[in-house]
User: What shape does this take?
Amino acid sequence: KAGVTQTPRYLIKTRGQQVTLSCSPISGHRSVSWYQQTPGQGLQFLFEYFSETQRNKGNFPGRFSGRQFSNSRSEMNVSTLELGDSALYLCASSLGQPNRYEQYFGPGTRLTVT
Amino acid sequence: AQSVTQPDIHITVSEGASLELRCNYSYGATPYLFWYVQSPGQGLQLLLKYFSGDTLVQGIKGFEAEFKRSQSSFNLRKPSVHWSDAAEYFCAVEYGNKLVFGAGTILRVKS
Assistant: This one.
């Protein structure tokens, strides 16, 4: 089975722009979660989607949003980028139930905001 | 506050030596517990998980972990470390319907 794929792998954006990141889960997985990883804050949960519905949300501002499509693929969007948004954004997929928390991660998208 | 603590930021071991990475959590109930490994520039790979049952769990790459309820710990062990084990290791705990990660432990392997 193919693993979780994320596109693009690297991205450079300017402050104030917006960005969309994409994640394709493992085939058959219905839950997709997003995490932000930075050297200072570590791994932080952004949100989780299951069957096209946001099931849980972390403590991030409204500039961070996401969605999930009927084929379980997910996108996350960050608007009005700030320098502090520079991070590795990781997507993880799981079956959803009963193994909701057994998550498999993609390679991440490295976002640099200048 | 609920937290996951990995007390060691860096650990250096000789190739062939045994390894133990520590993880403590502060939640009251018995949570779901995980260990992940991350190589530079890569995503996280699931090493092993504990949901319930036998407190000693086996994972991939020769790793094992032991859940100790009395100590709120879930330490990762490997009897003989290989140079390819050099990476960053993260302990994670399910809390509030999401995974909460520790800060990570960077493992260096010297030959």
